Amino acid sequence: MLTISINYILSLTCIIFFIGLIGIVLNRKNILIIIMSIELLLLAVNLNFAAFSIYLDDMIGQIFILFVLTIAATESAIGLAVITVFYRLKNSIQLDPIRKKITKKV
After folding, report:
1. Which has the closest alpha carbon to 6: 42, 65, 51?
2. Sign of torsion, CA 98 99 105 106?
3. What's the pLDDT at 94?
4. What is the rounded distance in angstroms from the CA atom of residue 78 to the CA atom of residue 57?
5. Within 13 Å, how many C-alpha atoms sit on residue 1's CB side?
6. Domain limits for position 77
7. Beta bridge mates, 94
8. Is 101 inside any structural domain?
9. Within a domain: residue 1?
C-alpha cells in the first residue's frame, strides 16, 4: 500500500491556498474569478482538515469539512445568483462600474 507523508499533503494545500490567494489579490475585476479563488481557499482548508483528521485519528476534522462544504455551496449559489442578476442589468460581470459608484459616494 502506498503511504503519503503528511508533509506532502500540507505542502500541496499550501500551494492551493496561495494560488487562491493570488487569484483574489491580482484579479479584482472579474467577480467569477474571485468566487473561484475563494473556492480554492476553502478546498485547501478542507484538505488540511482531512489530512489532520486522518493523521490524528479524530473525526472532528471531517465534521468541520461538512460544515465548510455547506458554507461553500451556499456561497457559490448566492454568488452565482448575484452575478446572473448583475449580468442581466449591466451585460458585464466586471467590477469596475461597482467600484466607481462606491468611490463616488464616499
Report:
1. 51
2. positive
3. 73
4. 35
5. 3
6. 6-105
7. 30
8. yes
9. no
Helix pair 6-26, 31-56: axis angle to 10 deg: 160
Give the side-chain half-sphere CA count within 13 A for 87.
10
Q: Taken in order 61, 66, 68, 72, is the CA torsion positive or negative?
A: positive
- Give the CA dihedral 17, 36, 95, 83, nearest 10 degrees: -150
β-bridge partners, 30: 94
* Number of structural domains found in the chain: 1
Please report, in tens digits, the pLDDT of each residue of the chain (106 residues total).
677 888 999 999 999 999 999 999 998 777 888 888 999 999 999 999 999 999 999 899 899 999 999 988 998 899 888 888 888 887 877 767 666 666 766 6
Torsion of CA 55, 60, 65, 70, to 10 degrees: 180
Biggest CA pair distance of the chain: 62
Question: At 85, which CATH number?
Answer: 1.10.287.3510
